[in-house]
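Example 5.3 — FGD4 protein
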Amino acid sequence: LQNAELGKRAPRWIRDNEVTMCMKCKEPFNALTRRRHHCRACGHVVCWKCSDYKAHLEYDGNKLNKVCKDCYHVITGCTDSEEKKKKGILEIESAEVSGNSVICSFLQYMEKSKPWQKAWCVIPKQEALVLYMYGAPQDVKALATIPLLGYTVDDTPRSADLPHSFKLTQSKSVHSFAADNEELKQKWLKVIHLAVKGETSECQNELQGNS
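Solution (predicted structure tokens):
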């Protein structure tokens, strides 16, 4: 919702399973962190600390409702003196980059000898040479980024690997990925093969558009 509409219209609630961390302070949710709460103004999932505000919401008959800190400031007009910290490289919201990406999907990811884990992977259009990895599609901070330039792509899975997997290697760092099917794997490889050479798929898109 736009700031002007906050509190005037009911928001779309982000589902609990769409995030692994508070959408405001980015603290991960885990068994120890207290429950997830929804801001009644913007619909974001937030932790208890970030939902400790109340504001009168027009769409709910001006009743006092739990809201997040940001919405509280917008609706009540009270502002924090502290300036918003500049966003770090990892603090680019997943929804922001997924909506304007060269490619995005879930992939299984493995680093060194750790177990495979599911990650939401995105290559944004603005940074078509960087792979962002998120815990879930609506997370507001990336778990990791891989600058793809200069990596070597190995797309022949070994018997111990998951099927439809591929590896990115550069000196000592090895990142293993696996797609759910061969078609998805090939889509990712097409983009990654260009990115490791410092190229983007812009020119390809133009060609496809003309065909």
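Remark. Helices lie at 69-76, 94-98, 182-195, 202-210.
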